Amino acid sequence: MHATQSPARRPATGTPLPVVIGHRGAPAYRPEHTTASYELAIDLGAELIEPDVVISRDGVLVVRHESELSLTTDVASRPEFAERRTTRAVDDEVCTGWFAEDFTYPELQTLRAVERMPELRPLNTAYDGHFGILTLAEVIELARTRSTAERQIRVLAELKDPGWCTAHGLPMAELVSEELRRLGADDGTVLLQSFDPTVLRDLRARLGEDPQMVQLVPEGQSGDGMVTPAGLREISTYAQAVGPSWHRVLLEADGRPVSGASALVQEAHRAALSVFCWTLRAENAFLPEHLRRGEAPGAMGDALGEARQLLGLGVDGLITDSPDLAAAAIRELCALLPSGQHRGQVPSPR
Known about the structure:
This protein is an alpha/beta fold. It is built from 12 helices and 12 strands.
């Protein structure tokens, strides 16, 4: 493994080593966005835990993958909410279901979390119904509770559909900035990310230098301009990191694995941006062809190999469903460093 030269201390994290980011916790092993998932992610080596943030009808910042609730909660089985089922356009796509913004927070508290991908992660269904819906404040408190003098746990909050929310009377930037100030979490405890540069710019104006910002890069042509040298320099005016998918870093345009250095990572570092790569998952269905093992979509492929390759290309953070695998790859990277240079930054799983 020969990592490219990254900044001595990464702009978005201030750490000398790449970081493990527990994507919605550790959803390879527990239903996403649950207390159990976040707790396990920390135990497995995550230094940041990543909740997705949506907004309830009464303006509470709650944690769900998206505002539509039927895939991640038991709302569809609840007769008292049957009439809330509706159809609306989200991100230019028509979606039918139950939406967080149609529920008050007390109503959302009555729902129970379920596994979002039961066909690929059937073992996680054993936890269906055991956990409720968390707020952003509760995730921040969990991170603070689990932090120690030797190891700070931080929160990387992704703001979902901020433009839609703001257009419908739930101003995302205003609500987030007010909540971070109320919690005293505008001091670096929380990093913020979004695919929408408008909300990040708005939050930068409201909150000043902190918190750190991560500009997520959409797949397809809509994100191509962001990863040009000019696009990355523009991002650096309001963010400290850029978040491309692993496809953009690991594969050439024709789908072949990148050979040599990653131009995207090198250009991002030239713009003084960290690179947080999303989303690493261990099942064949989510891996590049050269790292799949067997034919079954739900079978485990070489996810450790994927993490090694991305670290070898110089990425600064791995957003992953399996924090233990990313932590193992970073420990391998530590072992290659000169004696005494930043070893032991990522803990072994308990």
